[in-house]
Amino acid sequence: MPVPERPKTTAPPAPSAPSAPAAPAARSTSSAPPSLRERRRATAVREILDAAELHITEHGPEGLSLRAVARSLGMTVQALYHYFPNRHALVTMLVTKGYEDLFAAVQAAVDSTADSTADSTAGAGGTAADPVADRPFVSRLLDAAEGYRGWAIAHPERFKLLFGTPLRGYAAPADGASTVAARRMSTIFQRELFGGFSPEQLAAADMPPLSPQFRAYLDQLPPDGPGVLPPPAIALLMEAWGRMHGMVVLEVFGHTSFLGDHEAELFHLAMRNMLADIHRRIPGSADVVEAGAV
User: Fold this and answer.
1) Interatomic CA distance for residues 254 and 277, integer angstroms
2) Rounded CA gap, 105 and 89, in Å?
3) pLDDT one-digit tens code per residue, 29-62
4) What is the average pLDDT score of the chain?
5) Which residues are CB-contacts of 92 (< 8 A; sequence separation ≥ 6)?
6) How far is CA 178 from CA 8, 58, 97, 173, in A?
7) Which of 44, 224, 226, 259 has the most crowded CB, counting CB atoms within 10 A?
């Protein structure tokens, strides 16, 4: 599901194609190790980010103050500017790190499903070559959603930094680090929602006709982004994203607190219904939904 990058004052970036994010380039064995100055700088940046995250946790995203962060580290704000030239630079790094941590939580949830299914398949005398052969979509997508919800509940103020009210005067740099991190986050849901379907199946999804203007817009999206999907699938993806993210926002912002300890059950039921509804619209997916029932 595409994850719009926040906080910003412009339209959110489009999601990326459902491909695995590129691994960071390995350091050449012949290259010199980081210098003492580089190591000290990296340590200082980590400490500043940790202090800023703690400040956001205590005061909310809108209360972020460079002066307060610097004071908590026993440094002057002028010294902090040596690492982050302005508040925008620090916010961008915090947003980037937030998306990376959210990505890690969701990926870990998906991996746990794959690992448990592989163990079950191998223990039953089968093969673990395809760890999601028994429940290829439903369990993995549901666990991804649960991982998303779990991180948001554990880090509500950081979640609000990503998806809450845009910080006044801040606009994320176009195609900057935070945008890349947001798109990386979106690849998981796009993959788990549509990974087992062919382009022909997705193109034949049962959707109300899209307006010629909307279809033309979707058709011209770049192939390294959502343009890799047929227009009906893009519309389904955005619908699924809205339903999942909307449920999490309601809970994080306290709008479903009247349900008490039953919020988790409601979320699970809502995600089951959402996924079943979307898969019913894709030809040939009935067996997938039945096999994935949990």
Assistant:
1) 27
2) 25
3) 457 888 988 999 999 999 999 999 999 999 999 9
4) 81
5) 172, 173, 176, 177, 178
6) 11, 23, 8, 8
7) 226
The pair of three-digit structure tokens given for residue 251, joined into one six-digit string: 């809970």
> Please, which residues have CB within 8 angstroms of residue 102's CB and are 6 or more apart in sequence?
148, 151, 152, 159, 162, 185
pLDDT tens for 228-239 read: 889 999 899 999
Give residue for tokens 């990505």: 103
Residues in the chain: 294
C-beta separation of 1 from 241 below 8 A: yes
Alpha-carbon gap, residue 186 to 163, rounded angstroms: 14
Tokens 């030809």 belong to 283
Q: Taken in order 187, 192, 196, 201, is the CA torsion positive or negative?
A: negative
CB 41 within 8 A of CB 83: yes
Say which residue the tokens 């760890």 belong to.
131
Rounded to a whole number of angstroms, the CA Rg of the chain reads: 21
> In whole angstroms, what is the distance from residue 258 CA to residue 268 CA?
17
pLDDT digits (tens, 9 = 90+) for 165-201: 888 888 888 878 888 888 888 888 888 888 888 999 9
Token code pair at residue 131: 């760890």
CA distance 171 to 167: 8
Give this prediction's pTM: 0.78
In angstroms, the CA 32 to CA 49 distance is 26
Q: What tokens were used for 165?
A: 């009210």
